[in-house]
């Protein structure tokens, strides 16, 4: 076995500023070990009682999530890991195995604790390694959770965008077809010898119907009855195109309107006038559909932009928390509809603005609301209630669902990193840990109360937080 040398320790970036005599202390109190590919180095939950200096090879840290493997990180050569001075970590977060043949210097925790009293520069280097590890792990954790959340949101967003985009495509195609009929209709209409006052009367009727201000809202039965009435009238007046009845009813035409059109039109040209009006109404309907679909896409894009906070800097901003919650509901709307979940909003719109990072708060709302959706999946009568209120100098948001609840024996673990009861691919076990850290960054708190049929997360943070 090739023992770890002083030169190899000096090549480790975290130890480059440590004097040679202190590095030699590490060699004197440590042990060189070799681990072959596939061999375990430690098990999940094992006491964190050694400092590892990985000289050669690579180590994978992984977690067992509901019987399936999920990689946490890969430790590269020339890295210091394991127990580090003043770390609060007591247990290993997952399993580890060598993915390449490894050569490691192991120093027992007891020796490190003795050594920090004697070796200042070494202690300083190890503490720096610890803070770097925490920073890197936190960054990795946040990035993993953001990517996982983005994956869940993107599927629903794609569906939400596809619907109005398809409506625009259909509407444009149908509109083009109607426009192609205009030359022939113009020829037929131009041949009608209609008095100017009659033309004005027909035109005014058409304008009033397309204005839509007094258009009735009909039930399916009422609509069917009115279509039958118009169809009978058209048959009585020898009109062959009976399909126009459906379109005329949608714009509020009744039998009396058709009688008026008949009185204004020279016989036997009523079919020409009705065909021209039907073409106009269809175009009006298609333009409205295209306008509504375009507006829906614009709303979604605006929600995405606001949700990700692309147009703001990274400083805290004064903001209305309801905007972020509503944007999150827009982003998750497809999942909510698919799961047939009823949304109840009880917002105190008089709440003052709070100074916060909007993008980070959006991540909080996404994780909590998405967890509720998952809990309600497949359940009849699913309800999600979101309340906001002012509690002293704090703003509080309550997100409650009537799902199965969180078992009492695991409620204390749900905020732990990588803990999840979801199947692989449905959760990372990072969501609630990320929520906790974000709310702590805002000097707030997050709590949970849960029993079958009633699970409520409460998020509170100060209004004036400087």
Structural account:
The chain is α+β, with helices and mostly antiparallel strands and 466 residues long. Helix content is 49%, strand content 20%. It is built from 14 helices and 13 strands. It has helices spanning 6-10, 20-29, 109-115, 120-180, 182-190, 196-211, 220-236, 244-250, 255-264, 270-308, 321-331, 333-338, 358-376, 431-441, and strands spanning 31-35, 40-42, 50-65, 68-75, 79-82, 95-108, 317-319, 342-346, 354-356, 383-391, 394-401, 445-451, 454-462. Strands 1, 2, 3, 4, 5 and 6 form a six-stranded antiparallel beta sheet that branches. Strands 8-10-11-13-12 form a five-stranded mixed beta sheet. β12 and β13 (454-462) form a beta hairpin. α5 packs antiparallel against α10 (270-308) and α7 packs across α8 (244-250). The longest helix has 61 residues, at 120-180. It is elongated. The two termini are 57 Å apart. The relative contact order is 0.08. The model is unreliable at 423-430 (pLDDT under 50).
Q: Find the count of extended strands (DSSP E, 2+ residues).
A: 13
Q: What oligomerization state is this entry in? A: single chain
Low-pLDDT runs? 423-430
Ends: how far apart?
57 Å
